[in-house]
Amino acid sequence: MWVLPLSALLLWLTLLGVRVLGAGLSPVFSMLASLMVSLDLADLMVRVWVTRRERFGAAPSSTSIPLDVGVFTPHQIRLHTRPFAFVVAVRNASEDLDDFLESMEPFRDRLYIVDDASTDGTYAHLRQAGIHAMRLEKNLKKPGALRELLASLPREIETVVVLDPDVEILDQGGRLRDIERVIFDFQRSGCAAVCPNVVVRPGGWLARLQSLEYRMAIGLGRRSLADHGITSGVSIYRRDALEAALSGHSLSVYAEDLRNALILLGRGERIYYDGRFLIETEAKRTWAGWFSQRVGWHYGLLRVYIEHFGDVWRASKGRPFFAYQFLVYLGFFGLILQPLRLLSVAIITACALNGAEGAFGLDLLPDTSFTAPALFLLAYLKFTAVTMAASAFATSSLREWASFQAVVPLYFFYAIAYVVPATFGYLNWLTLRLFGRRTYRDHFDDAEGSGQSPSRGSDQGP
């Protein structure tokens, strides 16, 4: 049934475009102004088609691949779950520890924490609380610290859940009730890792926009990836798989989890998504923090993508949707077309300013096909319609979908703003290669130099 509403949406957008073009607007500028919506609509149709064809009716709605492990009671699950541990790397985290340790109380005996050369009382706090803890004398950042911690774990531990101290594991009714079942199913899947369902803690309008971004990226994007998902800062790993990934890791904090995923996928491993593995994270509360975070994300994306393109290419052979996700969506849509995205934003901005000038009786910009206010209106209506449809496919209930509709009319402006830090992230990679310096110093760069890992709850990516 999904074909009908998407086809109706596509027809309406086409008719809208034809009508606007009939008013004498330039077809080239119209296509450029609507570039983002065209890419998003194409991606939406591909992901909905793949998800409906391969998952619905063939697998539990909570996971991206079928997990037929049988029926077990909670007692049987506890009895047959093989040894697992929660592993955490912290640095100067004494202010976050009490709440985190309280939330992890049911699994305190399975919690292992490495203090990454803190300069405050973090290690003493951990020892006083009776937690399994080790201290590093030299700061290694999160990937290096986790590698050291894994080497010290009891050998019988087969599964590790990588956490950060300021995220919470939730389910629909409370904390930690589903995690044992998720781990039990994972251990029988033979896969290398499980990526989580990430939600944003309630907050202001910026947090709500990020919440919608995460919901579409995860509820539709991540669910569509079947067994070639991308891990997050919080993920479940087969221990030997994580050890293998970290052995080939640069140990940089930039896109550290994407690097893990590409290493594993390049080796033929499988990573899936489980919606029961629910993580609540803190969104960026200021536009400055949001901007810096996105610059770091996109610098890391380009850097890791280029360094591990061989893994991407090997894993793409004979797997059409894998090739779409990593070669077309990430490589072509996300990286190669970035200059056109920037040009599209420039056209939309000029059209919006020209329209605003007319409303106030000003005449600062010339009235040309490049600055026609109708182009802005066309792009806004089309993008908002696609966002409304995408949010419907990404949410699990009418109530959840309705909760996002207050910010859907604003999401067009959020998406436009997003192009700017993404561009700075890519420019940072280019200027570092050419001139040895960055265009913009993001907070990941500060962490890279000081050793402080920024991979905390507020930096969990979708």
Q: Briefly, what is this?
A:
The chain has 462 residues and is of the alpha/beta class.
Tell me what the structure shows.
This protein is of the alpha/beta class and 462 residues long. It is 57% helix and 10% strand. It has helices spanning 3-21, 27-33, 35-54, 74-80, 94-103, 122-128, 141-152, 179-187, 205-222, 239-247, 256-266, 287-307, 309-316, 320-336, 338-359, 373-394, 398-404, 408-435, 443-450, and strands at residues 84-90, 111-115, 132-135, 159-163, 168-170, 193-200, 235-238, 271-281. The chain has an 8-stranded mixed beta sheet with strand order 3-2-1-4-7-6-8-5, with helices on both faces. Strand 2 (111-115), helix 6 and strand 3 form a beta-alpha-beta unit. The protein starts with a helix and ends in a 12-residue tail after the last helix. The model is unreliable at 55-60 and 449-458 (pLDDT under 50).
